[in-house]
Design a protein that fits this description.
- Pfam families: GyrI-like, MerR_1.
- This is HTH merR-type domain-containing protein.
- Keywords: Coiled coil, DNA-binding, Repressor, Transcription, Transcription regulation.
- The protein has 254 residues and is α+β, with helices and mostly antiparallel strands.
- It folds into two domains: 72 residues, Multidrug-efflux Transporter Regulator, Chain: A, Domain 2, CATH 1.10.1660.10; 154 residues, Regulatory factor, effector binding domain (Multidrug-efflux Transporter 1 Regulator Bmrr, Chain A, Alpha-Beta Barrel), CATH 3.20.80.
- It is 43% helix and 26% strand.
- The protein contains seven helices and eleven strands.
- The radius of gyration is 30 Å and the shape is elongated.
């Protein structure tokens, strides 16, 4: 029976690049049992195959090579069980994070599909009076929130403009409202809204808001000073700001 395998044979056996084995040797993580006399080739015992398998398994769990080296130097039944329990907790945390991402993607898809279907059936330049039930959102802490929160632009977003100030929110559709604690939800009042679409960058949206207010006044509507702006086509789906599409809504007060 063959007692040793070369680095090349071991790399093929474990589907691993040979340079990885050389690096493990260099840092002392997996040193060969010896060298072949005629050419200095690294030689490994079959017991070391199991050690290499353990190293690769630990890498799959997300450990650094330094952490793996510490584990390999001090492992026993107790430390192995502790390590596995810690890894199980990490897996559960990652699963919870992925579940949250899944929910955010569902909300984004649901929102975009609804809005795109409306846009395709209507003239985006048309102004409409539309009745809405109460709608809900999670208030965001200003622009700092969006730059510090990786998930902000995955959720459908809504921006409120009033008296020269703006605030942000993460829109929560009716379908997924039950997934969010009610204490964290803010409400967009139900009622009739004067609605239009703004095409272009966020910086130019005030031209549409002001024009919509003037048109509402001409038609005899008293509208709220607070505009509700739903970002439909934004940097999440379109790199060219001139193609951004925002739905602007003004609540009709009388």
């Amino acid at each position: 029976m063959q007692r040793y395998v070369t680095a090349g044979e071991l790399s093929q056996l474990c589907n691993l690049h040979i340079q990885t084995l050389h690096y493990y040797d260099k840092i002392g993580l997996l040193k060969p049992s010896g060298r072949r006399a005629k050419d200095g080739a690294r030689l490994y015992t079959f017991d070391q195959v199991y050690k290499l398998t353990t190293i690769r398994y630990q890498q799959r769990l997300g450990k650094s090579l330094a952490q793996i080296a510490d584990y390999m130097a001090s492992r026993d039944v107790t430390t192995t069980l502790d390590d596995l329990n810690q890894q199980m907790e990490t897996v559960h945390q990652k699963m919870a994070e992925l579940k949250l991402v899944e929910k955010m993607l569902e909300e984004k898809i649901d929102f975009l599909q609804q809005k795109f279907s409306v846009i395709q059936e209507t003239d985006p330049s048309k102004v409409d009076v539309i009745g809405f039930p109460p709608r809900f959102y999670v208030a965001a802490e200003g622009e700092e929130f969006q730059f510090g929160n990786d998930y902000f632009y995955v959720y459908p977003t809504v921006v409120f403009h009033e008296a020269g100030k703006k605030s942000f929110g993460v829109y929560v559709s009716e379908t997924f409202k039950a997934e969010h604690p009610l204490a964290q939800l803010s409400q967009i009042p139900g009622g009739r809204y004067f609605c239009a679409y703004h095409k272009g960058s966020y910086e130019t949206i005030f031209t549409t808001i002001d024009a919509l207010k003037d048109l509402a006044k001409k038609r005899g509507y008293a509208v709220s000073e607070r505009s509700v702006c739903f970002n439909i086509i934004d940097q999440f789906v379109e790199p060219d700001t001139s193609n951004y599409l925002t739905e602007v809504q003004l609540q009709i007060l009388s």
